[in-house]
Design a protein that fits this description.
Elements (H helix, E strand, L loop, with lengths): L1 E3 L1 E3 L2 E3 L6 E6 L4 E7 L3 H20 L2 H17 L1 H12 L3 H18 L2 H4 L4 E6 L2 E9 L2 E5 L7 H12 L3 E5 L6 H12 L7 E3 L4 H9 L3 E7 L2 H13 L3 E5 L5 E4 L5 H13 L11 E5 L1 H17 L18 H17 L2 E4 L18 E4 L6 H4 L6 E7 L2 H10 L2 E2 L1 E5 L3 H10 L4 E4 L15 E2 L2 E2 L6 H7 L1 E9 L17
Parallel strand pairs: 1-5, 8-9, 8-11, 9-10, 11-12, 13-14, 13-19, 14-17, 16-17, 19-20
Antiparallel strand pairs: 2-3, 4-5, 6-7, 7-23, 12-22, 15-16, 18-21
Helix pairs in contact: 2-4, 2-7, 3-4, 4-6, 10-11
């Protein structure tokens, strides 16, 4: 049985707790590894390693830090196939999707390679008589990341890439469900020239999370996961004086206008709803059709495409999506399907009971489609996080805008239309953090920033881009004067730069 250990100070590290979790292969339902769970003293060991490494790494000039990030990027690319197969074996997503997971993380590493420019401060010459003012962006110290199961490469790279490039050291606690890729990434970071202690990986459950929240030497926490846990970490972290950015759940809507390109919208929605078995915070699980004609036509088109979908094991090159992460999550999604039917939504296609020949114990769910979903239904209010698409019907654009705007989540939203004026109005009015116009999954590129609104995000700073640089640095402003000749008399008033 493969044993997955913590990675501290550049090497594999055993834990003191004696506790461990089970890592399954979602394709078969069989256990494939055991992951050691860190206790509070193990978290402290990782933090102390990061704390010891911080002064030297922070003092390393930005060009040299960037060279390590360049090397790190190259090594990830060289090991792409190994990482993708490892990721798929623990998560269940198909190989092509795993490579996409890694590539989106790599794009943030590419951004981090430009840290000498991104971390520059501001300078004003002659702000007053003989006075110059300049600012510096300095690293915080030891930072921590707590990441979810659905993107075991991308989200850790989003967090640690920017944090480390800015001169911080990092303690990463990935999901215990698919922990191997984050450990492998930490090994590659050392191979890239990263000093031991700069990037550490610890595993565990709530005990590890609580230890991170409480640790006095951790200056900032970045989190992605469910909204309830995001709120818990934000409240606990800020109460302990830490910076916290905590990204929560989502219920993303796709608005289909009567003038939309229905062929393209259908393909986009199918991919966004069912890709990665719907286990994405930027999935598109709700389609809002404006007008009966659009709704009826899109329903028929979606059904045709759903019948073509191939659900298969992760290594099947023809499969569009694979299993969900665990037996527990499979049961949860199937229960949501039952609830949706009981609530009165029309279950057009039921994915429960799906069995893949030869992999009957795998955690597979067939593509599911509901129609006539109403705003008050539990399955609409809550995040299902599975291969379930819900159709809602609106009479006007205003009614369609109101649905995502009034929802508890505000991560992403999309509109499908040929009308520029409608798209502009939609983008301006909708109460959601990330907007796509004929783009079903509007995840911003790495040099912009990722973050939702309402219960999709807690904290004032988003992930990656310049928002990430701001989160992982503190500004120091210097006002300098170099007087010549006789000293001026003492002043007892606040300077005004006149």
């Amino acid at each position: 049985m493969r044993a997955i250990q913590n990675f501290i100070n550049g090497a594999s590290a055993s834990v003191s707790s004696g506790r461990a979790g089970v890592v399954f292969n979602p394709n078969t339902g069989a256990q494939q590894a055991e992951v050691a769970f860190a206790a509070a003293k193990d978290i402290d060991k990782a933090v102390q390693s990061a704390l010891a490494a911080f002064p030297g790494w922070a003092a390393t000039n930005p060009q040299r830090r960037a060279r390590v990030m360049f090397n790190f990027k190259a090594l990830i690319e060289q090991n792409m196939d190994e990482l993708a197969h490892l990721l798929s074996s623990e998560h269940g997503k198909v190989i092509a999707d795993s490579k996409g997971d890694i590539q989106r993380g790599l794009e943030v590493i590419e951004f981090a390679c430009g840290i000498p420019h991104a971390q520059k401060g501001e300078y004003t010459e002659g702000a007053g008589p003989g006075i110059d003012v300049y600012s510096m962006r300095q690293p915080l110290g030891v930072c921590a990341g707590i990441t979810p199961f659905n993107f075991p490469a991308m989200i850790p790279l989003w967090m640690c890439g920017v944090a480390i490039a800015c001169g911080n050291t990092f303690v990463l606690k990935p999901s215990e469900k698919d922990p191997s890729v984050p450990v492998r990434l930490a090994e590659l970071f050392i191979e890239a020239g990263g000093p031991p202690g700069v990037l550490n990986v610890v595993h565990g459950d709530k005990e590890a999370v609580d230890a991170i929240i409480a640790h006095p030497d951790i200056k900032a926490i970045s989190f992605v996961g469910s909204s309830d846990i995001a709120q818990y970490i934000y409240a606990g972290g800020t109460a302990n004086g830490k910076r916290v950015q905590a990204m929560g759940g989502a219920k993303n809507h796709g608005i289909v206008m009567p003038d939309a390109d229905f062929d393209q919208a259908t393909k986009d929605i199918i991919g966004a709803a069912y890709g990665s078995a719907g286990e994405r915070c930027m999935a598109l699980p709700v389609m809002v059709a404006v007008g009966k004609k659009a709704a009826d036509e899109m329903r028929e088109r979606l059904l045709v495409e759903i019948e073509k979908l191939k659900v298969g094991i992760s290594t099947d090159p023809e499969a569009q999506y694979g299993p969900v992460i665990s037996a527990v999550h499979k049961a949860k999604v199937e229960d949501y399907i039952r609830i949706g039917k009981d609530e009165g939504a029309e279950l057009v296609r039921d994915g429960r009971g799906f069995k893949l020949q030869g992999y009957e114990n795998g955690y597979f769910i067939g593509p599911t489609l509901f129609d006539n979903v109403k705003p008050g239904m539990k399955t609409y209010v809550e995040e299902i996080f599975g291969p379930v698409l819900q159709i809602m019907r609106a009479e006007t654009l205003e009614e369609a805008i109101a649905l995502p705007s009034q929802h508890q989540y505000g991560n992403g939203v999309a509109i499908f239309t040929r009308n520029g004026r409608a798209a502009r109005e939609f983008a301006a009015k909708v109460n959601v953090g990330m907007v796509g116009i004929n783009v079903p999954i509007p995840v911003p590129v790495a040099y912009h920033t990722f973050g939702g609104w309402k219960r999709s995000a807690f904290g004032d700073t988003n992930q990656h881009g310049m928002e990430g640089v701001k989160f992982y640095t503190k500004v120091k402003t210097v006002t300098a004067r170099w007087p010549e000749g006789a000293q001026e008399d003492s002043s007892f008033v606040i300077p005004t730069m006149q």
